Structures are given as structure tokens and as C-alpha cells.
């Protein structure tokens, strides 16, 4: 390989067919005289603009467009050399860092010698070692192309905002389960908004046996094994549900606050009493109607109960998870849109409450297709305000444009699966820790279950990994009509 | 003993089959490899510009062009058409000489399909010391020793690329004249002989062999310097329906040059493109015209130039890619150290420095 050009932070390297360089590989351009080296990543492989190739191809075609048949007598065997030159490729590489005195710095301000530089491949373990990804709490994401393992550090997910995105069926949920299980393994508290009911059986192996996570998974299905009593709720949580999920106007919210305090003082915080009080409330007709309709929604959701024996204390589960690590899987699969928002508002409200009171240290929140249950204003809330309380979110989506741009800008880690749509790639490339060329070039060619990892976990060295398999019972598979006939 | 060539008769054509004589001349290869061995451990300078030569000679003389065109009509009689061309290129310099590559191509048209045989590239390292030996050996081996004695001195170093290519071209022409029968043989350039590149005996023998095998040799020149009344003969085209030939008269060449063909201007297609055409002068007049008519009917003559000859030219021409490959081959296979000698023209005159040709 030979250094050909450098323009900005793009380096072009001439490579010959036997050198087998591929997109995503890392190369080291070492200038021994300068005692420095550039660490670059191949983001595109093109044909080298070898002069005369066009003529070479054209002359095999006569005017009629058919191939000319014939024989080449090549006594000196120069043809392989011609092929060698013709198949030379140009590696378009992005400079990721400069290595000097064993230290990596994100600099590309110097120019290595074109004639003297030595270019060689850098293996992922070597790069990870240079980048000091030491893996005190290792999470093995999977295998890299050079048959090494990509191991990230669980502490690098701590306090971060993560996005897992890619088109349907490429392994997003699988990766999120891997991350979730690994975090639980390190005694972290994890809450999952499980839109498709696929995380509940994580405690089981594929053949139906219990695995080491079995006792740490708390699957909660609203209206079934997950109900709450009004008197367990704090007014702020209820108001959050009414205002954010059920869009209760401010005037009505004030009236509700008054009614709530009145019932609480009387020790009558039940759905029945709430309904009765609203019905008999001496207030504006519109306010009364608004409150009545919201109360009706709460009752209809089935999520609230007056039977204390049925009520589940979320905090109890959270505290169990806190001690030994665990995951609260909130199964939203069969929950309607409004009810889903009610449940999410409740869970987030309780989480903030618990974190504010230091009942919990921090929580890793996994939110699948969050646009289906998170109100718009909550996005910023989650990534800015709630981060300070200790809620570290991982968004999982196959529609990257449903995640707000501000989220991408603040994302610390992005796990990117295959996208072919330019628009989707454009959206993802807005992330602050990502350069658009890398995303566009590499993500488009990712095979299924291969993930481009970007951000803090890989010290900003984008890595392509085949996500390792897990012995977990998967429930997220699409139900098919023609099963067995394929 | 008459040399017998293996020729298999087909229902339509009588095309040559591969024989020891039609495979690549071994002597070329031996001399090539031997010469390259000498270059080992010698510093090697790539040419900063490349210049391809093809063997063509031309000589302006006093002559007249008959204004009455000889109108042609395609003669649809199945006739094999075959063409030869060679190319040479100086691909670099060493401290003692030059590295030269030559390649030849023959193309035959059969059943409306083209079939080619390409020989080479053959690479030579030519020095002042070995040039006479290389050239003399090749000439002696392929065209009998007597011809080399006709000249007092051998070619200069700079003439060697052209000379070697001409040797290969004439060898290919001779093979074609021997192996094709009843066909039309297309040569590139003219049928002027008597020059260092084209000795009279050599060309005469090729033409004679061709006639023996009922072939007609047509030599097309892509460019000519023949003028009449100050105008290039290919520019003086009468308003007549193509295809036609224009006949020249009074063509004389200064000794030692000997014309072995009658010179015509051939306009084979509509449009103002015409070429100088030399036809073997020993062929009867009517047969000459018939040969051109058979050519028109049996080959594509887009832009007035036979496709078979065009393909031969294209196939033997070196592309920049191949030049790189040959340089790569020399460096890798023969371990030649690459040096960058500055181009003095560029160095002294910058962008005003002319390109240095081999």
C-alpha cells in the first residue's frame, strides 16, 4: 500500500489486489522519520484511476458490441502484471487519530511522508489497546472481521445517551438484549419499555430452561400483573399522566389538584370516590366534563385499581433490582396508545421520584420506538434533565427520523445497523460523534446482524462487529403466515 | 524441399491453423530474456513521456493524380480478410541503454466474426553493445543472413524500437502470406521498400509469397505526405459517389527506395475521409480493383478504413496501463532499481519545456 493523497482528514491510499483491504478496516500510516503515525479507517474502496484502463476495456469490443475472440501469446507473462495494475484499488480513508509516543490524539494536522511511510493493517485488539479500551467491566459485543472480539466497557454506557438504529430485521433488539443482559449481569438496574413483548422471556434460554438472569427479570404487564392504586401515587405523577398523556388543560389541572388534596385529606383516594367527587364538583361545566372524561380514561385503562391486593409497588421491584441488579420489563404489547402513555408517564414519574429521593442510584432505560409513547417535550427532558437524576437512556428505533435531532446531537454512543435509505442515513449522520461520510459509506453495506459502533464505547473509532448470539429466548420474531413453507 | 504448412480446408475458408512456424518466434523470446538479464542491477529510468511508433514510411515525390475516379461496387464473394500491425514503445532508460517493448497482432475476419492473435509484449533491453547482435540475430534467423549484409552499419539505439517492430511486423506478414490463400492481406503503411526498416528483398519476398497463395496485399496508410500540386493526395477528392479509387501516375522515388505497390487514393465510404492505398504492383490491374471490391463486401469499412486492420492496430497498441504493468514486471521480475532522473526540459523551462520523446 502506498500513500497517495491527503485532503483535510481524508487520506487516499493505493492498494493492490493481494492486500485485501476492506471498508471498515483500520490502517496505520507510519512515518518513522517523524516518529508519528496516522490511524485511518477505510470508508470506501474504489478502483484506482489507472491510465489506459478504459482503452483496455474498449478494445475488446468491436463496433457490433460483441467480444472479439482470439488468443494472446504472452511469452514473458506480463498479463498478470496488467491485471494487477488494473485491479489496483484506491482506499478512501478517514483519519481517526495520530499516534505519537504511544498516545492517541485526534489530530490530522501533519502530513506523513508519501514515499517513506509504511502502511499496515491494525487489528481491532491492537487498536483497542492503543485506545485504552481496557474493559474493566467488559461487554463482548461480537466478532470483528479479523476474528477478534470487540469488547466495550459497561462503564462507558454509564451516564450516556445511546441510540440503536437500523432497518427492520437487522438485529437491533438482539443487541439491546445483549446490552441489557450484560448490564444486569453487572448488577445494574434496567427498565425496558417493551413495545413488542419480546424482553419478558430473557430469563429463559432458547430451549426453555432458566438462565442466570431468570431471577433478575421482572416482567410487568399493565392491567394484568401491573396495576396501581391511586393512594400509592404522588400528585405530581398523576398530574403528569393527566397533563402529558391525557392532555388535561391547565385550568382543569388546577381543579383536579384541589379535588385530589380534598380526597387525600379525607383518606378517600379511590377511583370511585374520585369519579363521584368530580361528578358533584361545583365548578365550571367544561372543567367538570374535562375531568370526568380523564377520570373515565384512567378507569378504562385498567391500570388503576382500588383493590390494594392487586396493586403492585413499582418501587419494590426497583429496589429488588437495585440490590442484585435486575430488569423491569414493562410489556406494552397489548396496551392501547393512550394507556401506553399513561403507563410510561407513571413509570417515568416514579423513576424520577425514586432517583430524587436517592432510593435508586441510577437506572438504564431502554426505550423501543419511543415516539409511540413519549410526548415530544419528554425527549429533551430525558436526555438533559433526567440524565442528571440518573436515567441513562438507550433509544431503539428503525425509524431514525422519529428521534429528534437534538437527541442525535447529544448521543454518546450509536449502534448503527444497515440502512440503505439515504434519508435515514442523513438523519443518523447528524450525531455529533459521527462523521457523515463514515455513516453513509459503511452503514449502507453492513450485512444483517453487523453493527457499526460509534462513540464513547469505542473511543470514537468506529468499529464494525457481528453481534454475538445470545442463548436467550427471543419473542420478537415477526409472526408469519407462510411459516414452514419457506 | 518445399515447406509444407498445415492447412485444414473448411467449407468456406482456408484459414491457417497453428503451426510451429506461426507460434511466437522463439528467437524473439530468447533474445528478449537474454537482453533483460543484462539489465539486472542497472538503474532504470522510466520514460517521462511515452511515444508509440508504428512502422510507416512515406516520401513526397513528383506525381499526378488522375481525376477520373475508378468506381467500385462491392463484390460479394466470400474472401478471407486478414490484417497485421505492430507497435513499439520505449518504456524506459537504463544507464547503458533503453528498454523497448514490441507487440504484434494479426486479425482475421471469418463468418462475420473477428479472430485475433496477439503476440507480446516482448521486452528488450537494448544497449550500444548488444543492439547489432539483437537486430542481426533476428534478421538472420527470420529473413536469412544475406539481408543484413546489405547495410554497412546497424541501426542506432534510437532507431531500434522501430526496427524491432518492423522485423516482427514483416515476420507476421510473411507468415500470413504463407498461411492464408485466396484472401486479402491488409498491411499498415505503404509498400515502399529500400529503406533500412523495409529492405527490398524482404518486402518483395512477402509479396511474392502472397501472390503464390493467390492473396492480394493492400497496404493502407493512415497518413501520407504525398502531394500533387501542393495538395495532399487524400484531400483532392472528386464529387463522385463512394466507394472509388483515384489512380496516381508518374510516381518516382529516389534510390534506394523502391515502390513495390501502385499507389491509389481509396475513398471507401461517404464522407471526406480517404486513405492512401498501395496495392501490390505485380497484380494485374483488374485484380487490384476486384480485391478492393471484395474487401468492401467482406469487411466493415466504417470511416473508409477496414475494420480488420483497425482492430489489428488497436490490439497491438500499448495502453498506459500496460506500460505501467511492463514497468512493474521489469522492476519485480528483473529486480531493477528504479531511479528518478530529472527531466531536463521540465527542470529548465518548467511548463514551457517540450515533452521529451524517445
Distance between the termini of chain B: 44 Å
Class by helix and strand content of chain B? alpha+beta
Please tally the helical runs of chain B, counting DSSP H or I stretches of 4 or more residues.
8
Q: Please tell me what the overall shape of chain B is.
A: globular
CATH topology of the largest domain in chain A: Rossmann fold
User: Largest interface by residue count?
Assistant: A-B, 25 and 37 residues
Characterize the quaternary organization of these chains.
heterodimer
Beta percentage of chain A is: 15-25%
The CATH homologous superfamily of the largest domain in chain A: P-loop containing nucleotide triphosphate hydrolases
* Estimated radius of gyration of chain A: 29 Å
CATH architecture of the largest domain in chain A, by name, is 3-Layer(aba) Sandwich
Largest sheet of chain B: 13 strands, mixed
Total domain count of chain A: 3
One letter per element, helices H and strands E, the order of chain B comes to: HEEEEEEEHHEEHEEEEEEEHHHEH
Morphology of chain A: elongated
For the sheet with most strands of chain A, the description reads: 11 strands, mixed
SS elements, strand count of chain B: 17
Let me know the average pLDDT of chain B. Answer: 76
For the record, the count of structural domains of chain B works out to 1
Percent of residues in helices of chain B comes to: 25-40%
Secondary structure elements and pairings:
The complex is a heterodimer of chains A (486) and B (358).
Chain A: E1 2-7, E2 10-15, E3 26-31, E4 36-47, H1 53-58, E5 69-73, H2 79-86, E6 89-100, E7 103-105, E8 118-122, H3 124-130, E9 138-143, E10 149-153, E11 162-165, H4 172-185, E12 189-194, E13 217-220, E14 228-229, H5 235-245, H6 250-266, H7 271-279, H8 285-301, E15 304-305, H9 314-324, E16 326-331, H10 337-356, E17 363-368, H11 376-389, E18 391-397, H12 405-410, E19 413-416, H13 422-428, H14 436-443, E20 450-455, E21 463-467
Parallel strand pairs in A: 11-18, 11-19, 12-16, 12-17, 13-16, 14-15, 17-18
Antiparallel strand pairs in A: 1-2, 2-6, 3-4, 3-8, 4-6, 6-7, 9-10, 9-21, 19-20, 20-21
Chain B: H1 26-39, E1 44-46, E2 52-53, E3 64-65, E4 70-71, E5 81-94, E6 97-110, E7 113-127, H2 131-143, H3 160-179, E8 184-188, E9 192-193, H4 200-212, E10 216-221, E11 227-228, E12 231-232, E13 244-249, E14 258-259, E15 261-267, E16 275-280, H5 285-298, H6 307-316, H7 320-333, E17 338-339, H8 344-349
Parallel strand pairs in B: 1-17, 5-8, 8-10
Antiparallel strand pairs in B: 1-5, 2-5, 3-13, 4-13, 5-6, 6-7, 9-14, 10-16, 11-12, 13-15, 15-16
Helix pairs in contact in B: 1-2, 2-3, 3-4
